[in-house]
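pasting for ref
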Amino acid sequence: MGRFEKLNDDIRELGEMVLQDQDLCKLIYYPDDNPLEQSNINGRRTILDKRLLLFTPKLPLAKEEGTFVSIRPVRFKPTKGGYFIVSLLCFYIYSQKDIRPIMYKDKEGNIKTGDRVILIMDRIEEIMNNVNFSVGKDNLYDVSEIANNNATFSGYVMGYEDVDFRNLSRW
């Protein structure tokens, strides 16, 4: 297996890891204002193929509705062992403007209002802090606001630097 194929497999496995978080899947999949109270998502392929986009810099069209997350290794460099160290791994998180505000319950059961995109970022951060490869709190590089289609969709891009999949123990 070549190192580009290994990188492909590593990013796909990270996508599968994201799909194991039901709250994150609900935030991405359900467009209503109370997504965390909806039923669990069983059709993981539906989310992976249509809402969680690996490698694809797809921007949603203005007529589309929903939330989209793209995982992209923006910069990477080779190592001697046949792997890549991703020097910048980005999560692009877009949400249609009308579905960004949501309601949810905190850990104490209090009802709160919030921003869907920021809550998605929080869930991604939790996943990235608990993965079995070299990334952690100190690896968060930057968060930048993004918008397109006259701000019909907006969100953030989160970047993690020096993500080293070599320590991956096949989750």
